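Sync notes, pocket subgroup
Present: LS, DG
LS reminded everyone that the earlier model was apo-only. Rerun requested with zinc ion included. Inputs:
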Amino acid sequence: MREIGAAIGTFARARWGLRFLDRDHLLQWQQRRIEHFLRDHLRRASFYRDFGGARLDQLPIVDKPAVLADFAAFNTCGISLDRAVDIALAAEWDRNFRPTLDGLTVGLSSGTSGTRGVFIVNAEERQRWAGLVLARLLTTASLRQIAQPWRPALRIAFFLRANSNLYETVASRRLQFAFHDLTEPLGGHVQRLNGASPHVLVAPPTVLRSLAAAALGGELRIAPAQVVSVAEVIEPDDRVEIERAFGVPLQEVYQATEGFLGVSCPAGRLHLNEEFLHIEPEWLDGEHRRFRPIVTDFTRTSQLVVRYRLDDVLRDAEGPCTCGRVTRSLDAVEGRSDDVLWWPSRIDRAPRQVFPDTVRRAMVLVSASVRDYRIEQRGQAWHVRIDADSADADSAQRAARREIEGLCSGLGLEPPVLRFEPWIEPPPLEKRRRIRCVDRPIAAEARA
Ligand SMILES: [Zn+2]
């Protein structure tokens, strides 16, 4: 009962409470919450035993490898990494997603770089998470449907690589939650969706793009009121197709193993959840546009997330958002830090960063016949694969060369070395990353 209370309480606070007059008020309020958190909870995890009385900025910055190397020291339940992974894997193996261990949930994230994330949440945190996601995500019309008992329950279809009872928490009588397992073929999902007619459709953008094609082709006949992208970077061409197919603006959730980090607003920006998280920007460029977030979750007490540096590159939006929220807003989650390419400057030959969204914008201009592409930096060359009709392949390559060279020239860089390779279909379950730096050029390692 206490847990249900946590869900409703968080929901109400996130939806109607926690409104701040301006950013200063938010930051002052946040500061008090952080002080309480540090005083009451920090030293319960053995990693922080000697940090009594320390301010947040005096605590060490940690990252995923550091936490995985000493997992038990970062949680307050005394659970080792081996034990946590065993339980999560056993659940994944029989697709039985109720791996509770003394009321705790263990989840595994599908890490894109090979290191899997592991997280523990307790029952109350799980409910709070559910309340927060719903409060932030659902439109007033969707909430009204939940609240009006004479109308059908709100149906949410959720596509995931792995389920977790974290997500099943959201289910209730007024809310029906259908889990779609991405390891199953798309045809079955289309049939199930046609049967269920979900009001809210939640999936990674690559899956939404396939569903959009099925909808435009007439096989998928659903009219969701909300379409939500999760788990991957949204490519501009996917956004256009998804919005065209379903006729509603695409919403975005920014969620990582480390928590529910942000959600898009009606004005189209992505707001960070600063009412629950403290997020320090670690700036990546001189103009302070792009940063890696250093996250402190001052509401989570089972596994501590304190000054935890994520691998993501976020692009800060300029000025306050017209939606009225005072939380920091982003233009985009651009990708991971190893999605950043490097190329030498014309002036001093020193390698400079080429951020993935600038490459994406250049590639959008290439040709309408380009269905997909991959650009990988391997040392001193960028390897490009383009999926286009064979009749247009040569002209697509020429256009790609022109756009990428134009981009580099505009950034004051030397002309890039491009190697075109034949297109290969990526494995269906792989998280999509169109732009990746597989190997940095040697000089970039030294200077970065
Ligand atoms: Zn906004």
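DG: The pocket of zinc ion is lined by residues 265, 267, 269, 271, 321, 323, 325, 329 (CB under 6 Å).
LS: The mean pLDDT is 85.
Action: DG to write up.
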